[in-house]
Amino acid sequence: MRSVPGTGSPWLRRFHAREGARLTVVLFPHAGGSANFYREWSADLPEEYALLVVQYPGRETRMGEPPVDRMEDLAEGAVAAIEECVSGPYALFGHSMGALVAYESTRRLAKGPLGAPVRLFASARCAPGREGPTAGVHLLDDDGLVAVIEALGGTPPGVLADHGLRSLVLPTVRGDYRLVDTYRPTAPAPVDVPVTALAGADDPSVTPEEVAAWAEMTTRGHVLEVLPGDHFFPVRHRAEVLRILARDLAR
């Protein structure tokens, strides 16, 4: 494994240095996603925020590594890197699968030397302990898996018709869906951290009402924001998501 410049850890990527930042935002990608999903966020965030993105094994700078197949191992790897690279106040933001990884990371970080994040942002995902919308997706054949990916709006129709591209993309996506589907948190407990949950009004995989159940996962208050768009509303409405992020971090 090679370390990513600027962090000293292969688990984290930093796109812009923010030496004078007062708070660090750590971002967790979706199933099949990589750190580059958040590249534009780094430039658009106000200067007072530094941004780090978790890079899961098996993609981009970590392509040669086997993917992680247990949620607990994925969260523990991310937590070790965050504790090594972050000092001072920080927040976690996870989209889709990333929301679950961020939740599991929050539980572990709260017990460690860094302490709990100031806020957890959970985007486009039902709360832990509930059967997710993608149950059984990893068991589909390649065509079925591609149909799910395209229905969510993350990949334009036809892009994954190329079999060479499929052979690169689908094993990672399938592995991530398997990881989520086999995630069985024992008695998922509320975290002592305020939560902002975000939902797409037209997300075919999870309804705003299901996203609202994150209210049960916090003892410190909950905000629900419903934005226009499908599962990938943070791409099409990035400015609004960042406005909500900055607003709630200023609370």
From TrEMBL:
Family indicated by similarity: Belongs to the thioesterase family.
Keywords, in A-Z order: Hydrolase
Stored SMART domains: PKS_TE
Single GO term (MF): hydrolase activity
The name this protein goes by in its record: Alpha/beta fold hydrolase
Start and end residues of each Thioesterase TesA-like domain: 25-249
Organism: Nocardiopsis lambiniae
Claim: Endoplasmic reticulum is one of the keywords in the record: no
A Pfam cross-reference name: Thioesterase
